[in-house]
Amino acid sequence: MGSDKQYDGYQSYDYLEENEDYASFELAEMFSGYDAHEIPLSEDEQARMESLVADEVVVSLHDHPFYFPEDVHEDLWDYVREGRVHTAYELLAQTPLDAAFDMHLDGLSGIHSKHGWKWDDIVHDVSMRACDIAHSDYAMRCSDVDDIFRAREEGKIAIVPALESAAMIENELDRIELLYGMGVRCMGITYNASNSLGTGQGDIYERDGGLTAFGVDAVQRMNAVGMAVSTSHSSPQTTLDVCEVTERPIFDTHALAQTGGMGQRGSSDEELRAIADTGGVIGILCSTHLPDIETYMEHFEYVVDLVGIDHVAFGPDVLYGDHTSLLEVLGEFHGVELPESTMQNPYVKGLENPTEAWNNIPRWLVRDGYSDEDIRKVLGGNVVRVLDEVW
């Protein structure tokens, strides 16, 4: 059985002097102007939920478990270029999470460059976060499956370093091993824009080029080194090509289904089934695309019906801060007009940040009568099964 969370009071970069060694910013609170929402449970349901999350591994397949500035429009770029993202240790300790795939700054990674995703940006982001996490007695970096179980037993959280794109490897396969050496255990192929590996989801012009020959080599190198592959933000053909050439199960760490009502923002049934056919797992995305947790869980059930309960988990893709404003700034930065479906909800009721999301997801599963075995699978068991094969 897992232990109670052993949060030690550490705040990011406590080993330095704020405003002397680094610039400070007013960081977001738990809720950025939105009301908290908790799914109500009966006394018996509450007891069952608490028992389940104590006894079973709980893993987020995709989140950004750190603080953004309170005023995103005013302070975001100064915060990013300071190069010190602040992990929300205290708020994560209020969740049942044993492990979380931490996607770092990703599309906002312009620490040293104008447009981000350069090698120096990623090395800085990953390494600085590693240094900070090393100073916390509550959080630990996750390098293998044993670390997830050790974190659960010790009341800690295992942070899985992950990246949403492989753009920074450019044409150097060996950089995959360097990233692995830095602790990165999961990497996407593209982040909307195309790169040397393949075509991005947001970069299809007249035809979908799919995975390149170098991309095939990169997938095989990731398989060989033991780094999980994700097809999130990849084009449909790139996703299908990855599924064809991989020798290991893969992830789509955060996805929605086109046929589940998401249109082009979602993945096709063919893509989702292809991922499942590798033995892989699809994390269900909420971000700002859905109005509330009830709609989110309807989408979860749709994907379960499509690919089976063994191939679904949760990758909410949420953070501590104003997510809608962040997406607006990100769209401006990349010169992209965000689709209406992305901006139609100012927040997702019941899933506004990792703390709220990961307290409500198991509550919903218990309230709606899912079996202990199915809850075990989707809360973390499916992800761990894949990691046992990949890592």
Automatic annotation (TrEMBL):
One of its GO terms (molecular function) is metallodipeptidase activity. One of its GO terms (biological process) is proteolysis. This is Peptidase M19 renal dipeptidase. It comes from Halogranum salarium B-1.
